[in-house]
């Protein structure tokens, strides 16, 4: 996810100074007090040497950055040779880097699964190669098929893995907007509006794109039903968010309009059709896009994000660092323990969401001009 705004827009600074923090409104809560001190490093999984089927997850590889491509190259060719990797979108902007990245991953893991992210469908550097982003999507899916990367639901032992196509829509955002500040429009801030190319009937500001991508999943309905009938455990995964609760509240984001370009109600409905309206202990959904490490249980489904993100984010440990990735979510026929420590989802596990508060956090308000 890229916005044309201030650096590190997706979260607040690692160590806000006391002058930045309104202690009356924010730091009264114990979880927030600890969050204001430092950004902790997520601990590596202890299950990397377990026997049996192991499933690792990662999102937002962004290997157009040389540091990220090096990270992929440095993954062991022996440690994961019998394992599964789920890649939850945003591999690379260019076709060449996408192919190289997925080939490197396939050389290291027995099974690699993939769903497309928004960066994967950018056409700005390859405008001459594709009529639009849907043509590029077809090329990427064809490439996956050629190198043995899975993009359809598959049964592995008692585990079902279900990739889900998705795209965001503005109406996904149900929470109050932030008033009184000059906040750039989505068209100005979000590069997708310029880097992606769509047919005239598909737009970001309505539901058409989100619905189009959701309908793409219908072709796999028979495979999904087979998984539901045969598998005792299911992992679904997407690039975009299925619920707004998986993103911090607007007042805490450097770009408060971010929730309008991150998720899909159609996606959550499809996830519930797979895992059930009440979820289950055997239900897990993996996502990406916002570059926040996240591990939360909502209405019976575990939602997890394990992003590599941008090099600058890792240096500030904004995504939990890099030593814990890829994260082992499943081993020995069971799901792994929660990510720990997991910055934002830890905060919301102890503090209720209060989106009706529309006062910008101090570390955000200093970037914006008040309306007169």
UniProtKB/TrEMBL annotation:
<protein>
    <submittedName>
        <fullName>Uncharacterized protein LOC113743019</fullName>
    </submittedName>
</protein>
<dbReference type="GO" id="GO:0016787">
    <property type="term" value="F:hydrolase activity"/>
</dbReference>
<dbReference type="InterPro" id="IPR052963">
    <property type="entry name" value="Pantetheine_PDE"/>
</dbReference>
<dbReference type="InterPro" id="IPR004843">
    <property type="entry name" value="Calcineurin-like_PHP"/>
</dbReference>
<feature type="domain" description="Calcineurin-like phosphoesterase">
    <location>
        <begin position="53"/>
        <end position="291"/>
    </location>
</feature>
<dbReference type="Pfam" id="PF00149">
    <property type="entry name" value="Metallophos"/>
</dbReference>
<dbReference type="InterPro" id="IPR029052">
    <property type="entry name" value="Metallo-depent_PP-like"/>
</dbReference>
């Amino acid at each position: 996810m890229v916005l044309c705004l201030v650096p590190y827009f997706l979260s607040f600074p690692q160590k806000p100074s006391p002058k930045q923090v309104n202690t009356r409104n924010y730091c009264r809560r114990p979880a927030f007090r600890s969050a204001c001190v430092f950004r902790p490093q997520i601990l590596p999984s202890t299950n990397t040497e377990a026997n049996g089927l192991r499933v690792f997850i990662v999102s937002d590889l962004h290997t157009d950055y040389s540091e990220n491509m090096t990270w992929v190259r440095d993954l062991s060719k022996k440690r994961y040779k019998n394992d599964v990797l789920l890649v939850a979108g945003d591999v690379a902007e260019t076709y060449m880097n996408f192919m190289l990245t997925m080939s490197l991953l396939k050389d290291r893991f027995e099974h690699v699964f993939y769903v497309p992210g928004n960066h994967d469908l950018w056409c700005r550097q390859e405008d001459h190669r594709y009529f639009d982003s849907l043509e590029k999507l077809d090329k990427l899916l064809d490439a996956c098929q050629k190198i043995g990367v899975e993009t359809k639901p598959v049964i592995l032992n008692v585990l079902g893995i279900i990739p889900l196509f998705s795209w965001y829509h503005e109406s996904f955002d149900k929470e109050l907007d932030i008033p009184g500040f000059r906040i750039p429009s989505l068209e100005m801030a979000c590069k997708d509006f310029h880097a992606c190319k769509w047919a005239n009937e598909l737009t970001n500001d309505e539901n058409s794109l989100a619905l189009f991508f959701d309908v793409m999943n219908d072709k796999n309905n028979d495979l999904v039903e087979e998984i539901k009938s045969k598998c005792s455990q299911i992992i679904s995964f997407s690039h975009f968010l299925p619920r707004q609760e998986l993103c911090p509240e607007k007042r805490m984001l450097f770009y408060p309009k971010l929730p309008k370009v991150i998720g899909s109600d159609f996606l959550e409905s499809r996830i519930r059709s797979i895992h059930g309206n009440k979820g289950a202990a055997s239900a897990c959904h993996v996502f990406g896009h916002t570059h926040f490490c996240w591990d939360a249980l909502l209405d019976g489904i575990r939602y997890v994000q394990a992003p590599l993100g941008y090099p600058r984010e890792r240096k500030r440990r904004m995504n939990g660092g890099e030593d814990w990735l890829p994260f082992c979510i499943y081993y020995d026929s069971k799901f792994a323990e929660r990510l720990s420590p997991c910055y934002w989802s830890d905060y919301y596990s102890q503090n209720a969401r209060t989106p009706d508060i529309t006062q910008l956090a101090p570390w955000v308000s200093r970037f914006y001009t008040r309306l007169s």
